[in-house]
């Protein structure tokens, strides 16, 4: 078989582009369950806030407890799928990034507290949106799309119906996360 | 420098192998996603997968998710080595200015 330098150059370019696309789609697939889990839990928290405003704090605590347990399970499953290669390193970095953002939100709320429930919801939603937008710059444009949709929804609710933030933001944001999760899972 | 791998070098098969090589070990890709990534038709992709499977470079698993049939494809150890060897050959060719 004769392979010219032009053939080799074109083949390498093609192989690299295909490999990158394959990795991006695989990462979308791995991220999908996290979005579906937290999307569903946000909606539950929003419904609790709507039905029983006095129990909003309890609803969020329960949702966070279930969410952290579910996330731990997903991380273990995710790590098994990734084996010991680069994807495992990436997973550890992602966990570190999310932990840093969570610590930032927690410390910010502590510094500026006491903070109204609606403001807490907005801050968490906006930091999540920013996280997805940053992920979009590094991993794949679909993350950025989810971040922009989430931020747009939050900003819209904040300006149009500020009193309803504790109810609408979790329900609309949760819906956006679920749609994003389905979009990621079906990525081709 | 080891030679070119004729099985891997064909453009569609090279795309198949690079898509599968990008996944972690033991991970498989659904046929429909592989078809979208490679831009091949069902028949074309099936034919190239058969060639790769016959060479021991990929494994094909068929099962059902609920009532829907699902076909998944994974790269084997020899397949990964063949792909990486072929890519190394292409890179060396460009660096050395060899080949024709």
Verbal overview:
The complex is a heterodimer of chains A (188) and B (100). Chain A is mainly α. Helix content of chain A is 87%, strand content 0%. Chain A has 6 helices and no strands. Chain A has helices spanning 5-51, 56-82, 86-112, 117-138, 141-160, 165-185. The radius of gyration of chain A is 20 Å and the shape is elongated. In chain A, 34% of the residues are buried. Chain B has helices spanning 6-9, 11-21, 31-38, 42-54, 77-96, and strands spanning 29-30, 58-65, 68-75. Chain B has 100 residues and is α+β, with helices and mostly antiparallel strands. The longest helix of chain B is centred in the C-terminal third of the chain and has 20 residues, at 77-96. The two termini of chain B are 14 Å apart. Chain B contains 5 helices and 3 strands; from the N terminus they run ααβααββα. Chain A binds chain B through residues 1-5, 8-9, 11-12, 14-16, 18-23, 25-26, 81-83, 85, 87, 187-188, and chain B through 3-4, 6, 9, 11, 14-15, 17-27, 29, 32-33, 36-38, 87, 90-91, 93-94, 97, 99-100.
Annotate the secondary structure layout.
The complex is a heterodimer of chains A (188) and B (100).
Chain A: H1 5-51, H2 56-82, H3 86-112, H4 117-138, H5 141-160, H6 165-185
Helix pairs in contact in A: 1-2, 1-6, 2-3, 3-4, 4-5, 4-6, 5-6
Chain B: H1 6-9, H2 11-21, E1 29-30, H3 31-38, H4 42-54, E2 58-65, E3 68-75, H5 77-96
Antiparallel strand pairs in B: 1-3, 2-3
Concise summary:
Chain A is elongated and about 75 Å long. Chain A starts with a helix and ends with a helix.
Descriptive keywords:
heterodimer; A: 188 residues; mainly alpha; 87% helix; B: 100 residues; alpha+beta; Arc Repressor Mutant, subunit A; 3-stranded antiparallel β-sheet; 3 strands
Structural class by secondary-structure content of chain A? mainly alpha
- Overall helicity of chain A: over 70%
Ends apart, CA distance between termini of chain A? 33 Å
Shape, per Cα inertia axes of chain B:
elongated
What is the tally of helical segments of chain A?
6
Task: Give the overall average pLDDT of chain A.
Answer: 88
Looking at the structure, what is the overall shape of chain A? elongated
Question: Describe the biggest sheet of chain A?
Answer: none
Number of strands of chain B: 3
How would you characterize the largest beta sheet of chain B? 3 strands, antiparallel
How many strand elements of chain A? 0
Strand % of chain B is 15-25%
